[in-house]
Q: What sequence folds into this?
């Protein structure tokens, strides 16, 4: 495997008069991947990003980016990192063009109008280039922030809740933008509390809660756990064996043959569709049932599960 | 020591653009205040005043008035320049950039010095409408104005980092700078004060600033120019050190 582009060890942050926002976080990010940091509000996502980008002073631990220790070689590392913050903090009276040109200069790059034009066009901001930022909609302001973050051509880009409060259409659009960035070789770390988003975008997912990384895994593996549909069907009469027609669903009999349990799906509705097919197949086979209970496992289940184990340990 | 001139220039340009966006206000306000002072103190009262140290009263008050506006404008301008990004959250960009205290100060303070010179030129042009005067050492005056503008830009910068409300931002210029400038010999020579007030007045550091600028204008001063210059440089150095410490510790900048 490649050297990690970002390597975090034992990162801890306790705010003054505040909670322990990060608790001994270890995390490695691989070059070129999209990593989704998934967690509820207050989990510590923004704090983690802040610690890497220089907005938050860590209370403990180390951060290496591009092999540089951030506590010493922050200059060379920061020049290669971009940040799109969670809050829509923009210079309201500045025009889009000037705001992006400023970012380019601030990060030490020579003025490059062609590059700015390319960024603005790719984000559909070109016809707004001379507009004052305050005149733009929320979604457009978010794009301006992205444009600013891209102006110095970062190799590692943080997107803190890029689609929070963005409508469905824009969200899809944003996902395409992010995919395009990945195509160009940018490593992306995004935070979200939408499973759907992690699912759509990420190569790997990390779940953070209460300042701790609860699990990090390939999205596929994670989604198998996150995206399961479970259906429990109580049958009118016990079966000793499943009929041939039902074999393909992978359902299992229990409770002396009176209960049929299905587990499967991909977190994208396939599970529910299969349960519907299963129910129809049961009817066709003349097998009656008294109840059908469907449950999609969710991020919440995982959290509850994680919290449960933590309480047992405590 | 790293220094990235492009970053510093980006900050400088943005600070200048900010001033030009509100150019109407930044030009009109000092023109208006200066005119009012000249109408009241220069023409109406000044007509009945004796020359001070051989300088006609109307001309005598120019350096003091210049200092009054320069200190107020520079301090509040610089304090707003850093307070607003903290307030709106746009400071995230400065903090996440490969930019250290050197670039930040070069950008902010360079812009403040430039604005100070422009402001001084506007005030002097306005004054010309009311009284005749000649500047004895124009180069010294320009350098001195830039030094004072830079020092108080640094001071305003500290103020803008310290303040956690708009009230606090306004309180120092209003409650400290303006009174001290008034008492610092803007409208009189502190040598003319009766004892012991002439000595007490020298506790006020701004008296040295006014005196220094007046020397560069007319070659007369309440205290030696070297003392004024030294004090200004000392203040500049002190503010720089304070800001370097603020950046190092991240006080009020980084959580
Ligand atoms: N500036 C701050 N001062 C004190 N506590 C803070 C500050 N910022 C965040 N916190 C606390 O730290 C925890 C993590 O917050 P945050 O990193 O913003 O979470 P997330 O981005 O996952 O919603 C929360 O409990 C939050 O209240
Ligand atoms: Mg957050």
A:
């Amino acid at each position: 495997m490649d050297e990690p582009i970002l390597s975090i060890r034992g990162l801890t942050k306790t705010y003054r008069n505040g909670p322990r926002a990060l608790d001994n976080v270890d995390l490695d990010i691989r070059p070129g991947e999209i990593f989704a940091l998934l967690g509820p509000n207050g989990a510590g996502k923004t704090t983690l990003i802040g610690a890497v980008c220089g907005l938050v002073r860590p209370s403990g631990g180390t951060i290496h980016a591009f092999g540089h220790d951030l506590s010493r070689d922050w200059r060379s590392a920061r020049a290669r990192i971009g940040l799109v913050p969670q809050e829509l903090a923009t210079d309201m009276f500045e025009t889009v063009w000037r705001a992006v040109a400023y970012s380019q200069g601030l990060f030490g790059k020579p003025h490059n109008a062609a590059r700015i034009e390319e960024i603005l066009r790719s984000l559909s901001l070109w016809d707004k280039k001379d507009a004052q930022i305050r005149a733009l909609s929320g979604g457009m302001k978010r794009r301006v922030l992205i444009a600013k973050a891209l102006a110095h051509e970062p190799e590692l880009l943080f997107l803190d809740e890029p689609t929070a409060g963005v409508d469905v259409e824009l969200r899809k659009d944003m996902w395409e933008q992010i995919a395009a960035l990945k195509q160009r070789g940018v490593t992306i770390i995004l935070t979200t509390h939408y499973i759907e988003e992690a699912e759509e975008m990420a190569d790997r997912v990390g779940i953070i809660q209460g300042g701790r990384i609860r699990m990090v895994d390939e999205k596929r593996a994670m989604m198998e756990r996150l995206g399961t549909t479970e259906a429990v069907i109580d049958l009118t009469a016990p079966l000793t064996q499943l009929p041939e027609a039902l074999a393909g669903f992978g359902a299992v009999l229990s409770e002396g043959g009176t209960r049929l349990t299905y587990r499967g799906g991909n977190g994208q509705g396939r599970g529910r569709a299969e349960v519907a097919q299963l129910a129809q197949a049961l009817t066709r086979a003349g097998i009656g049932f008294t109840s059908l209970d469907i449950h999609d496992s969710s991020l919440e289940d995982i959290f509850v599960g994680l919290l449960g184990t933590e309480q047992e340990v405590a | 020591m790293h220094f990235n001139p492009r970053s510093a220039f980006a900050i400088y340009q943005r600070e200048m653009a900010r001033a030009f966006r509100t150019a109407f206000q930044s030009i009109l306000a000092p023109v208006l205040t200066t005119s009012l002072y000249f109408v009241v103190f220069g023409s109406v009262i000044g007509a009945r005043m004796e020359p001070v140290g051989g300088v006609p009263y109307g001309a005598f008050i120019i350096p003091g008035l210049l200092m009054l506006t320069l200190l107020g404008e520079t301090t509040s301008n610089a304090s707003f320049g850093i307070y607003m990004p903290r307030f709106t959250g746009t400071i995230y960009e400065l903090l996440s950039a490969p930019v250290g205290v050197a670039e930040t100060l070069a950008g902010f303070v360079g812009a403040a010095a430039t604005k100070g010179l422009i402001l001084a030129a506007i005030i002097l042009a306005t004054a010309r409408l009311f009284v005749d005067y000649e500047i004895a050492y124009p180069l010294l005056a320009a350098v001195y104005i830039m030094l004072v503008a830079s020092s108080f830009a640094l001071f305003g910068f500290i103020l803008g980092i310290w303040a956690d409300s708009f009230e606090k931002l306004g309180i120092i210029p209003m409650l400290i700078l303006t009174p001290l400038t008034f008492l610092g010999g803007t409208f009189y020579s502190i040598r003319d004060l009766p004892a012991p007030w002439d000595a007490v007045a020298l506790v006020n550091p701004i008296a040295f600033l006014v005196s220094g600028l007046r020397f560069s204008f007319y070659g007369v001063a309440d205290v030696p120019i070297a003392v004024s210059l030294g004090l200004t440089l000392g203040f500049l150095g002190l503010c720089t050190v304070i800001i370097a410490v603020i950046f190092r510790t991240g006080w009020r900048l980084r959580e």
In short: The longest strand of chain A covers residues 20-29. Chain A has ten helices and 14 strands. The mean pLDDT of chain A is 89.
